[in-house]
Write a structure and sequence with these properties.
The complex is a heterodimer of chains A (about 250) and B (about 180). By secondary structure, chain A is an all-alpha fold. In chain A, about 65% of the residues lie in helices and about 0% in strands. Chain A has one domain: Up-down Bundle (Ferritin). In chain A, helix 5 runs antiparallel to helix 6 and helix 5 crosses helix 7. The longest helix of chain A has 29 residues. Chain B has about 180 residues and is α/β, with parallel strands linked by helices. Chain B has two domains: about 100 residues, GMP Synthetase, Chain A, domain 3 (2-Layer Sandwich); about 55 residues, no CATH class. Chain B has five helices and nine strands. In chain B, strand 1 and strand 2 form a beta hairpin. The two termini of chain B are about 25 Å apart. Classes of the chains: A mainly alpha (about 250), B alpha/beta (about 180). Chains A and B meet through helix 2 and helix 6 of A and loops of B.
């Protein structure tokens, strides 16, 4: 496999982590209570740290002057290749936790597979991520149960969130040519193989939380090809503002 | 006898990578540099050094260049930047101005690398230590103030990435717990 392909894969995973981390960071000082504010921003930090590791690796493969910051701050919307589910706005707390849960359930299994990647750096980043993801999942599972099985208000909000998110989950289990090729070589994760376990785990938890599994066959995809929802551009205009206004600015 | 391995009542079952780390220090030809970096503490927990924490992995000296290898605790831990700066300034005081910091990701840092003395120091500082468990194991948590195990979790996440919030139901003190990973 060529370096360029592994680089592209590392950028995808970095984009997922950065966009997810940034969305969580937008809760800073707005959490429902202090401990939860801290939890949201702590998890955010884990993802931003993960993004730095993937981007640093991509920059190393790219060579030249490219740095981790370049990937985060200097690329435009169409260059971002994150899964669309990450870029949806924070919504209410139920929406944020539902997304977090669906992605934690996926993310832990994903990182456990990536841990045995034949690419040493990807495997090392994943090994680190697995340890953190266990905590993330434990917390988001608890919130799903608490909200789903809570008041009528919390239940309805969670059901709406799951309904709104569901069509975006199909994309988690899509493999394009790049990822299929890398997966065949034992570098990338074959996410199609994760689908049935994910479906079972999520189904069981939603059942326990008294949330109906949405019945839909829509699949909203395109993130890996740089085709985004309207939300990513707005998010980037915020995230990238300083580097756009003052290119190369350092603290 | 390797530094830090105690032959007490419990057989020291160290993870292999932690054993190797202690071996590297014991076999090092630049012991004075390791000793100097004992003064570098975790900025968030100033009672334990980066050596005791398991962050300091290796030191190599090449004709004027000191290469220090560290392993980050959490992916996004902002303390790592401060630790790197503190290493550079500690070595500068010894007259080494050419210092490079390398980050090693694998094997991933684990709280089981935190040395026994440091676990005790954490407790005295008011933080419940992680113990030898890892990967979110449910190890019994005791209040660092009154040693009661009658405690409950307030939040999985606390004041820093590495800590969770607990409260003691006997002495009513809230406290941080170092999460086992």
């Amino acid at each position: 496999m060529s370096k360029a392909m592994i680089k592209q894969y590392a950028v995808r995973l970095g984009d997922d982590a950065l966009v997810q981390g940034h969305r969580l960071s937008q809760w800073c000082s707005k959490g429902p209570f202090l401990e939860e504010d801290l939890a949201l921003t702590n998890v955010s930090l884990d993802f931003i740290g993960r993004a730095r590791m993937f981007y640093s690796y991509a920059a190393q493969l790219e060579g030249g002057d490219v740095t981790e910051d370049w990937y985060a701050y200097q690329r435009d919307c169409r260059d971002f290749t994150n899964l669309l589910i990450h870029e949806l706005p924070t919504g209410d707390f139920a929406f944020t936790m539902a997304r977090q849960y669906l992605m934690d359930e996926f993310g832990l299994a994903f990182m456990q597979c990536l841990e045995s990647s034949s690419d040493e750096t990807l495997a090392a980043i994943a090994a680190k991520a697995v340890k953190e993801s266990r905590y993330h999942l434990r917390r988001s599972r608890e919130w799903m149960l608490r909200l789903g099985d809570g008041t009528e208000e919390s239940h309805n909000r969670l059901q709406t969130a799951v309904d709104d998110l569901w069509d975006y989950t199909a994309e988690l289990f899509e493999l394009d040519e790049l990822e299929q090729g890398l997966a065949n070589d034992g570098i990338a994760v074959d996410t199609i193989a994760l689908k049935s376990n994910w479906g079972m785990a999520v189904g069981a938890l939603l059942g326990e939380a008294a949330i109906d599994i949405p019945q839909t066959d829509r699949a909203i995809c395109g993130g890996r090809q740089g085709m985004h929802t309207e939300h990513l551009g707005h998010m980037l205009s915020d995230l990238q503002f300083m580097q756009r206004a003052y290119p190369g600015q350092e603290w | 006898m390797i530094a830090g391995v105690q032959s007490t009542d419990r057989i020291p079952v160290l993870p292999i990578e932690e054993y190797q780390r202690r071996q590297r220090r014991a076999d090092s030809t630049c012991a004075q540099l390791w000793d100097a970096l004992d003064a570098v503490k975790d900025p968030e927990i100033p009672v334990i050094s980066i050596w005791e924490l398991g962050v300091l992995q290796d030191i190599a000296l090449y004709e004027g260049l000191v290469l220090v290898t560290i392993t980050p605790t959490y992916s996004g831990c902002p303390a790592m930047e401060v630790i790197a700066e503190d290493i550079v300034s500690a070595l500068k005081q010894l007259g080494y101005s050419n210092v490079e910091i390398a980050t090693r990701l694998a094997p991933a840092w684990s709280t089981s690398w935190i040395m026994d003395e440091a676990q005790e120091a954490l407790r005295e500082y008011g933080i419940a230590p992680p113990g030898q468990g890892s990967g979110g194991d449910l190890v019994e948590v005791c209040c660092p103030q009154c040693a009661s195990s009658n405690v409950h979790s307030i939040s999985e996440f606390g004041s820093t990435a590495c800590k969770a919030l607990y409260k003691c139901d006997d002495c009513s003190e809230p406290f941080d717990r170092f999460k086992p990973i």
